[in-house]
Write a structure and sequence with these properties.
With 334 residues, this protein is of the alpha+beta class. It has nine helices and 19 strands.
């Protein structure tokens, strides 16, 4: 009996892993927008699953239980690190640790704790961050380096922020939060900053659009992997605001593009900035039996004019060059 128990304990994790891979393969085959042929995953999680998902589309992925349970509260320096043509850019979140330490606007990141970040992959750069980091940065348009020390701290990134009583920034469209928060602060002639808004909840985005458009305006059309088409319209008794300005750019994506396109199409907003990312696939999270999850592209989204934006992006009504685009918010046209 003791020998049998030892054998069972030994093989249990292997059986569990195999069952989870089967579960993952079944869900991807049935629920991804492209309905791919069911795969036989024989390698480790998450590498095999994520490598396969990336071969289908760039937005689907597998998340461990720890990754899936993360929310907007995290410990960090309160900034985004991205690669642009000029180099590595650090973009501070308003009133986050990096912002409060003195990095008030997007800056080129030259080094972290004395290690040069030139030509370094972003994943490697993030590994350089410790509880207290010394950042060497430089304005995009001068050659004067700045040294800033930032401590990692707990930080909550709000869905909506008012910037110096002049601008409204939507950081992410969050279910049951963004529309309520936006309704409290918007007014006629508002300026809404979407330059770093990479997406969020599709249905919350549609609720937000109802604050700006008359009832029964077509907002989007979705198509699932069975070819089922569904049209979504603005809600009645919500239309509040007119004549707004939207700041957009290369990292404006997904739900933020849906928001911008509908307001541009119905001539309720002027878009200022640079061409947006171009993403018209919606993702859903599917929790797995072990608490991990799949983020799968499950819907194609079409704009109210019938176009499908994937890979194209929106063209702003007023284009800005890099110097105008990256300078501080105070300098934007009002």
């Amino acid at each position: 009996m003791q020998l049998i128990l030892v054998v069972l304990l030994f093989i249990s994790p292997i059986v569990a892993a195999h069952d989870l891979l089967e579960e993952i393969a079944e869900i991807i085959s049935n629920q991804h927008i492209d309905k791919p042929v069911k795969q036989n995953f024989s390698s480790v999680i998450p590498d095999a699953v994520n490598n396969y998902l990336q071969s289908i589309d760039p937005y689907s992925k597998y998340l461990t239980a720890a990754q899936y349970n993360k929310d907007n509260n995290y410990v960090g320096i309160g900034a985004k690190i991205v690669a642009i043509k000029q180099g590595i850019l650090i973009i501070p979140f308003y009133q986050g640790p990096a912002f409060m330490a003195g990095i008030k606007q997007p800056m080129l990141l030259l080094s972290v704790n004395g290690t040069s970040t030139t030509a370094m992959p972003i994943s490697n750069i993030l590994n350089l961050f410790t509880d207290k980091v010394v950042l060497e940065t430089q304005n995009l348009f001068d050659e004067v380096p700045h040294i800033t020390t930032v401590k990692r701290q707990p930080y909550n990134l709000p869905s909506v922020q008012v910037i110096e009583n002049k601008y409204i920034r939507i950081n992410k469209f969050v279910a049951r939060k963004t529309a309520v928060a936006l309704k409290k602060v918007i007014h006629n002639n508002s300026i809404i900053d979407l330059r770093e808004t990479t997406g969020g909840d599709l249905y919350e985005t549609l609720d937000c659009l109802s604050l700006f458009l008359p009832a029964e305006k077509l907002l989007v059309k979705t198509v699932d992997n069975k070819g089922k088409i569904r049209n979504y319209y603005s809600l009645p008794n919500q239309h509040l605001i007119k004549n707004i300005t939207l700041l957009v750019g290369p990292r404006t994506a997904s739900s933020a593009e849906i928001f911008a396109k509908a307001l541009q199409y119905y001539q309720h907003a002027t878009l200022i900035g640079q061409q947006t990312y171009g993403k018209c696939l919606s993702q859903t999270y599917i929790e797995l039996s072990d608490g991990s999850a799949l983020k799968l592209s499950n819907l194609k989204i079409f704009y109210p004019d019938g176009s499908f934006c994937d890979g194209k992006g929106l063209i702003p009504d007023i284009s800005l060059d890099d110097k105008e685009f990256y300078k501080s918010l105070d300098s934007f046209p009002k």
